[in-house]
Amino acid sequence: MNFLRLYKRLDDGTLVFREAWFDEDYAQFVVNHGTVGHQSTTQDTRDVTAETAGALLDAFAVQCAEDGYSDIPPAEQSTVVAQYALKTAAGSERDRYLEDKAKRAITEYFAWRGLGTVERSEFAPHKLNIFCLAPDAAKAVAGLKVCLREAKLDYTKLTIAVAPPEDPEALKQKHPLPAKTPFSLG
Question: Which segment, 4-18, 39-53, 82-96, is predicted with the most confidence on average?
């Protein structure tokens, strides 16, 4: 699947995004756009060949550049970690289901709102960590709280931390607040 997501900061500070992709399975070229953190607007063109999709994606990129949209490199985005406390040190089959369901919920929610991407997940002793890359950390934290609650995942076991782009290892807890203990990945 060919995919392109670009961002622009408006004069009032609002971050907006545009993205386009070609879905080979459905022969669709899709354009999606909106304000980061809000449900986007989608338009699609059906019965598109791979060759036509390539030309459409190139034209989309040119138009976005002309309109002032650009890529936000990963080094300029925040690391956001959704962490679940687990009952076992290694994680059980139930915890693997939680990992899969949470990653799918976050991926879908973030995608339709330009909030970023799920980069990876890992199990640490008694913890499940899901790492996201986000252009706007505050909106990503708010989005995580909404999407994981809506997915009916155990919200009482959730902790969220953020690290700034300049120091991805300096995670600071953002949910729940106030932090009772320092945030730790392991």
Answer: 4-18
DSSP string, 129-167: EEEEEESSHHHHHHHHHHHHHHTT--GGGEEEEEE-TT-
Is the confidence at residue 70, as pLDDT, over 80?
Answer: yes
User: Could you give the CA distance from residue 17 to residue 126 in angstroms, rounded to a whole number?
Assistant: 37
In angstroms, how far is CA 168 from the centroid of its own chain? Answer: 16
Rg, the chain, Cα only: 18
Q: Look up tokens 């609650």; give the residue.
A: 149
DSSP H helical segments within 20-177, as ranges?
50-66, 93-111, 137-150
Q: Are the CB atoms for 38 and 46 separated by under 8 Å?
A: no
Residue 116 near residue 76 (C-beta atoms within 8 A): no
120-136 pLDDT, tens digit each: 999 999 999 999 999 99
pLDDT of res. 1? 52
